[in-house]
Amino acid sequence: MGSQMESHCIDDDILTVIWTAEQVIQRVCELASQINKDFSSPGSSSPVVVGVATGAFLFLADLVRNIKLPVTVDFVRVESYGSGTVSNGAPKISCDVKLDVFGKHVILVEDIVDTGNTISHLISYLESKGATSVSVCTLLDKPSRRKVHFKLLGDGKFYSGFECPDSFVVGYGLDFNERYRNLGYIGVLKPEIYE
Ligand SMILES: O=P(O)(O)OC[C@H]1O[C@H](OP(=O)(O)OP(=O)(O)O)[C@H](O)[C@@H]1O
Ligand code: HPA
């Protein structure tokens, strides 16, 4: 490897681990079990699971691996944080769902609901596309920072893995400046990384 390449270990940039990889996966399995129960009534159509890229990619993968229903899987991409730690309040759908959600029960899968801007925008968008219900399954919920109080569509449910403290967290899909998504655990960065 060339000497100019950055080659430090990303774990060295973490100040505190909030949830270990084991705690995360255990909670993901619990959420999947709840979804299995809630969507398994006879005659009801299986949901479309839509991950919000990029942050939800690991959570979505682990979640659907533990869902035992014949779900379909898709992604949507929304951006509002750019390269910083503050939402610009105007989420933009930069990559649409491929599957037709008309008349379907949709489960939106998020890594985090923070101000609520992204999820609120997506619920309205899926409603405009004719979804029957929209549930939200987020690994982290940061209610202390909520600005938009969103309403789920139809008989949609809200699933949340952990309540997140009011800190900017990274890992398990969550990034700072596109990095740290590949950590298996969730933690807080050392201040010198983002200051
Ligand atoms: O509730 P909010 O304040 O809207 O914040 C939550 C959103 O912010 C992050 O996405 P980001 O726009 O950073 O894109 P990313 O998923 O590619 O990291 C995160 O993945 C959520 O989608
Ligand atoms: O705490 C966070 N970390 C990473 N991305 C985020 N997007 C909203 N909140 C966060």
UniProtKB/TrEMBL annotation:
The scientific name of the source species is Lactuca saligna
Q: Read off the NCBIfam families from this record.
A: HGPRTase
What superkingdom heads the lineage?
Eukaryota
Cellular compartments per GO CC: cytosol
- Answer whether the UniProt record assigns the keyword Nucleotidyltransferase to this protein: no
Task: Report the cofactors.
Answer: Mg(2+)
Main enzyme class: transferase
Q: Mind telling me what this protein is named? A: Hypoxanthine phosphoribosyltransferase
Q: What is its main location?
A: cytoplasm
One GO term in the molecular function aspect is: hypoxanthine phosphoribosyltransferase activity
